[in-house]
Amino acid sequence: MRNIMLSFIFLGMLLQAVPACGQLTEDAPINQTPAPDAAPDGDSPGTAGTAPGAPVTLNRRAPNSYPPNPFIFYRGNVQLDNNQILLGNANVSAPRKGFYISLWKFLPILGLFFLWCASAKWAYTDSQSLKARPQFWSTVLLLAGLAGFVLATLSPNYLLAFFIGVMGYAAPIGSYIYERNQKVPDSAKVMTPRHIRSVVIRFLAKYGIRIGGGAAVEQAVGPPITFIGRSKEGGRSKAVESSRGYMSAKELIYDAILRRSTDIHLEPKEDEMSVRLRIDGVMYPTEPFDPAVGQNVINIIKVLSAMDITEKRKPQDGSFGAEMEFREIDFRVATQGTRFGEKMVMRILDQSNSVSSLAQLGMRKQLADRIREIISSPHGLFLTCGPTGAGKSTTLYAALGEIDSYQRNIITIEDPIEYKMPSVTQIEINNKAGQTFAGSLRSVLRQDPDVVMIGEIRDNETALIACQAANTGHMVFSTVHANETFSALYRMLDLGVEPYMLSSSLSAILGQRLARRLCPDCRVPYKPKPEFLKNANLPADKIDNLYKPPTETDGQCPTCGGLGYKGRIGVYELLDLNDRMRDMIRDSASVTQLKAEARKNGMLYMREEGLRLVVKGVTSIEEMLRVVK
Questions:
Q1: How many Å apart are CA 328 and CA 352, to the nearest integer?
Q2: 527-536 contacts: CB < 8 A, separation 24 or more?
Q3: Which domain holds residue 313?
Q4: What does the pLDDT look like over 439-475, one tens digit per residue?
Q5: For the chain, what is the domain count?
């Protein structure tokens, strides 16, 4: 497409630069050379009675010369006036210079071409984000546009040619807009009266022209994000649009999303409201608010989350949503009273960043294949463990994505629902209404499930029901808060599960951490010390370089924003139970004996998996030591 566009531009410039060939000029008279035998005093037969200075009419030509051409030949878009052409006259007045094309007719065609290129690029990126057949629509837009321009070129009439070109552009792009508007909410639809009005207001506001009132201009000019209150009617969203601090709240959340933040912390201080963002698991401070503005922002978020804005000391929980760039984003909100006021933490759950397969987690192939075998079993208990924010729920969502949800009945019990999954029954816990994990799990087991995912096992009743479900022909996924796999195993025993029941129901435990990825554009190679390689059991002769983030003197990378890291990758260890280990659990064997048997079974510890990522240049040794102790 880029080559085609450059060809059109080059052709247009060439046609504008080359003047018309063969055009007439005032310095090119026709047949002004007199015959060789003409008398110098004007008494020759062909010039008798001609006044001095008057045009000379040639009645004869020189021997062996061509006769004069009675037709004036010209090229380009110059139109000669018949009154300016005197056939048989020795002098012809010439018009202005011309070109081969009409510039005023060529410019609309050129503008339509650039519009087609820009629309095709937008449709490709938009269809990718919406997962709306990007390859199909890219092909349709390319072929339809090319066909329209080819037919327009072959058309003898300009208006017909322009109409054909417009149809070749408008028909496919209009069809795509119609399809994508069926998949998005009303606020994300394009080319609707609401969207066109917003674009016009935003465009005019850039030049100081404000229409529609201050609220409309503020809504259109502000960050392109729309809040959705917890109530389905949207009344809470309307109520906060005219509140003080509304634009500050929008700018804060919009900026946090652009920075790939997972959490926003609003922390009251003595003279300000500090703001910190958690990016790739690490906290970074950003510009604080004044105390009054910060409190207004907190009140707006509390209204959206259906919280009590008059209660500032007791902890409260809530949630709300937002729409940004045609994608849905959910927020989990928690408040807590502190010494200087109310603190708020918002967890950002971006639906577009959800993981749908194990391949996206960055596992090595052997580990991913073994987990696929475990989750494909007809029954069992698969647990993930790790601290808060280690990606346990994301791993379970990826495991569910590997299962055919049309042939198997999948039910999840979560607190709250983090990512929406099609063809999966998702249940959200409501402790205020008396709906708990244990009570919901009992009810779910009567719904004929094949796979059950429990958000977290945190009490004895839930642990017992989960093990019983695994023993009665269900595949159960869940998480446990423990630092590593063997701690998670004994955590289940501490919750009151009998060793014989746990040994027969448990299939495997996956421990994990999240390490930051080095930025591929600014990472710095260095030669590791031989002592380090020896202590890490790494072959010094096979490792030339390791990588680390750049220092402040290396400059700021635009890819990662100067952080040196971009994105995260999982560091895993899998405790895969065999028959020998089940017997040891049933006999209450020690941790040392279980570890020895697991090593014989081929288990790699989390530190060893982390070193593999360090050697491959995915992360740094400092980052690996930070997350894996």
A1: 8
A2: 528/621, 532/621, 536/611
A3: 222-352
A4: 888 888 888 999 999 989 988 999 999 999 999 999 9
A5: 3
